[in-house]
Design brief:
By secondary structure, the chain is an alpha/beta fold. The chain has helices spanning about 5-30, 35-40, 45-75, 90-100, 110-120, 185-200, 235-245; strands spanning about 80-85, 125-130, 135-145, 145-150, 155, 160-165, 175-180, 205-210, 215-220, 225-230, 255-260, 265-270.
Length: about 280
């Protein structure tokens, strides 16, 4: 039986659909198969990729070498050298203050913190710390130099600063200053001024006392005191200086004390069994 036209058209359509399906399947295989991957790889700029990878690896090696080098160089601190003459700070105190440095990192140890701790010690005027590669630290210490004794408990330096208020350290041969609390600057300044003035007439001041009521006394290396009171102190000192230069200096070894609290002259107390010359 001869197929009709409708049957022929349907058969032809089916063959065309099958052909299109097979074409799409072949196209899909070309886009997803090994061939597609090969085509994709062909578009990658391998030379440039290799260059960047090489540069990255180079800097990675350099960084690793630097880290290894720093670790090799950064050894624990094994030795602490103390430079400077120590008269008032004990070696034990210095060792205790420097203990944070022992076995600490050579490069990252807190030298500034240790320096501040050292300078917090009342007898340490200045401290400096430096690293000595490979594993040592050098500490330079400068101590305070006591200039005068204050209230028999502390010391004032040459600049007039009370650097230690109370200490068991005894330094012999220093002038002694005494005054009410917080009066150290005033007493020190008067000591300096009067010492300079009285040295012109041959007197050596070794102490000044400011009493709580404001009266002043000056002591000399001769072993006697000058009482100036609290009124017109500079005027009384001037009168005494004139009198001492004119007459009293001739009998200075016989003087027990001098009271300058008078408007016209001074009262001299002589040592026992001493009769001053009349003149």
């Amino acid at each position: 039986m001869t197929p009709t036209k409708k049957q022929l058209d349907k058969s032809l359509g089916s063959r065309r659909g099958a052909t299109a399906t097979r074409a799409r399947e072949r196209a899909d295989k070309r886009n997803t198969g090994p061939a597609a991957i090969a085509r994709l790889l062909a578009f990658i700029p391998w030379n440039r990729v290799l260059l960047h990878v090489s540069i990255f690896c180079f800097w990675l090696l350099v960084l690793s070498a630097l880290i290894a080098g720093v670790k090799w160089l950064d050894r624990p601190v094994a030795t602490v050298q103390v430079v400077g003459e120590l008269n008032y700070v004990s070696r034990g105190e210095v060792k205790e203050l420097l203990s944070p440095l022992i076995n600490a990192s050579f490069f990252t140890s807190d030298l500034d913190g240790v320096r501040k701790n050292l300078e917090a010690h009342p007898w340490v005027k200045r401290a400096s710390i430096s690293r000595l590669w490979p594993d040592a630290v050098q500490v330079d210490l400068e101590e305070e130099e006591p200039f005068v004794r204050w209230r028999n408990q502390g010391y004032i330096n040459e600049a007039g600063r009370l650097f230690v208020k109370e200490t068991g350290v005894v330094v012999n041969g220093l002038p002694a200053l005494i005054g009410p609390p917080h009066s150290e600057r005033l007493v020190f300044d008067n000591f300096q001024k009067w010492k300079a003035e009285l040295s012109k007439v041959g007197l050596d001041v070794n102490g000044v006392i400011m009493e709580s009521r404001g009266a002043w006394l000056i002591s000399f290396t001769d072993g006697w005191e000058l009482n100036l009171g609290k009124q017109d102190v500079e005027g009384r000192l001037h009168r005494f200086t004139v009198l001492f230069e004119k007459k009293l200096h001739q009998e200075r070894e016989k003087i027990a004390s001098v009271d300058a609290r008078y408007t016209r002259g001074v009262a001299v107390k002589w040592k026992a069994d001493v009769t001053p010359e009349q003149g």
